[in-house]
Write a structure and sequence with these properties.
Blueprint (H helix, E strand, L loop, with lengths): L1 H27 L4 E17 L2 E16 L14 E6 L5 E5 L10 E9 L5 E6 L2 E18 L2 E4 L12 H30 L1 E2 L5 E4 L4 H5 L6 E5 L2 E2 L3 H9 L6 E6 L5 E6 L2 E5 L2 E5 L2 E3 L1 E2 L2 H27 L11 H13 L2 H20 L6 H14 L5 H31 L1
Parallel strand pairs: 4-7
Antiparallel strand pairs: 1-2, 3-4, 3-5, 5-6, 6-7, 7-8, 9-18, 10-17, 11-12, 11-13, 13-14, 15-16
Length: 420
């Protein structure tokens, strides 16, 4: 149960922060944000505030902010349609009833001759019993269109995504991934305040019992300064060298806590994870308290995590890593379970890493992802005119379908690893 709660909190936080970025910059740009959703599929819970419907949906595979103009806008009012109109105190149409007009006895029913809800905000038409006198009605910019008793606010063109400048649209799309990177920085800073900041040097805090490090005599406060004659100046140098030499005897020069220098020999144990073999000594890094150092730690850990994920992504694209290395919700849940068992700090670290991963993946220029939409905005900036919306919509639809197929394949692989 603890893992379930932790997974829900983690998933909710990551998606909320990502979509919150999209929402805030949409509103700042004057776009009408119709829906802010956590999850996909059937709605579990919803409420409306400041023009936006906030929903929680059943499937935990992401979220979205639906901005006016992303989808076809409303029902098109064509000549000959019979509609009902209700008015506000200023005499403007504030409600357009498309069907079930009998449920709105106060509505004025007309036959539509012309309607423009994008630019002119006007409806022209005739009374049903008087087709000789055309009437014209001004429409309020926040009027509601009622279809099957469901009311949706209209979106004049200046409230739609496409009406905004290239810069504002690009920022609205980039804001989601940006918020994920900022969240990772904040989490790493919090982690630094809780546990301290790791020393830059390769200084050992603890050698785990019965590990190669313990058998070789490594202990608290030891600083590794040389391996096989190569100078070791950072913890990264140390871990990389160990990982690159599984089951190989290595000679080390160690600076003890009392200042003395000793030579020891150690053989890293061989570990294998998802087809990758690496060496491991069984030591933990020494941490120290540093208030100002935690802020540097937050940025640097986010930077290093970004580097690692980008490297793995490049290896995946070039075929150096198999698609089986990818994890879906099932695999992420399994790793979350391990992180929870290892303690709160490990869980925080895992959450920050996932946040960076979410930010990077969404910036990949694939259809349906933020990166894919940014690519189309970039093409528009170069061409000086937008790509045909219908063609772009088809590309994103196909991309979304392929992503869902990939999600199914990855989830099946996760299930096989865990249960078969």
């Amino acid at each position: 149960m603890t893992t379930v709660i932790a997974f829900i909190i983690m998933f909710g936080l990551l998606v909320f922060i990502h979509e919150f970025g999209h929402l805030i910059f949409a509103k700042r740009a004057g776009m009408l944000a119709r829906e802010f959703a956590i999850g996909f599929g059937p709605k579990i819970f919803d409420f409306t505030r400041n023009e936006t419907v906030y929903t929680i949906r059943l499937l935990p595979i992401g979220g979205y902010v639906r901005v006016a103009g992303d989808d076809p806008e409303m029902v098109e009012l064509k000549p000959g349609h019979h509609i009902g109109l209700e008015f506000n105190d200023a005499g403007k149409v504030n409600k357009i009833i498309v069907n079930n007009k009998s449920k709105h006895p106060n509505a004025r029913v007309i036959e539509v001759e012309h309607a423009d809800l994008d630019h002119e905000l006007v409806i022209k038409g005739y009374e049903l019993d008087d087709e000789d006198h055309q009437l014209q009605f001004a429409v309020d910019e926040k009027a509601l269109m009622v279809v099957d008793e469901k009311a949706t606010q209209i979106a004049p063109y200046d409230r739609q995504f496409a009406s905004k400048s290239v810069g504002k649209r690009a920022m609205q799309l980039f804001a989601g991934p940006m918020m994920n990177f900022l969240l990772a920085i904040v989490i790493f800073i919090i982690l630094g305040l809780i546990q301290g900041v790791p020393t830059e040097q390769a200084i050992i805090d603890e050698a785990q019992p019965n590990s190669p490090a313990a058998e070789a005599g490594l202990q608290h406060g030891d600083e590794i300064i040389q391996i096989e004659g190569k100078t070791i100046s950072t913890w990264e140098d140390f871990t990389k060298t160990i990982q690159d030499h599984p089951e190989e005897e290595l000679s080390m020069k160690v600076k003890r806590e009392n200042g003395n220098t000793d030579d020891i020999t150690v053989t890293p144990a061989k570990q294998e994870e998802r087809g990758i073999t690496f060496g491991q000594l069984g030591v933990t890094h020494l941490f120290e308290k540093s208030f100002f150092g935690t802020f540097k730690y937050g940025f640097m850990e986010t930077y290093h995590t970004t580097q690692t994920i980008l490297t793995n992504l490049f290896m995946l694209i070039t075929g150096q890593l198999s698609i089986e290395m990818l994890s879906g919700p099932v695999g992420i849940y399994d790793v979350t379970n391990q992180a929870v068992q290892n303690g709160f700090n490990t869980f925080l670290m895992w959450t920050a890493m996932l946040s960076v991963n979410l930010g990077i993946v969404n910036l990949v220029p694939l259809p349906a992802l933020d990166g894919g939409r940014l690519l189309f905005v970039g093409i528009e900036a170069v061409r000086g005119k937008p790509v045909d919306p219908q063609k772009e919509g088809i590309v994103h639809f196909i991309g979304f379908a392929l992503l869902m197929l990939l999600m199914i394949v990855v989830t099946w692989n996760d299930i096989q690893r865990l249960f078969l």
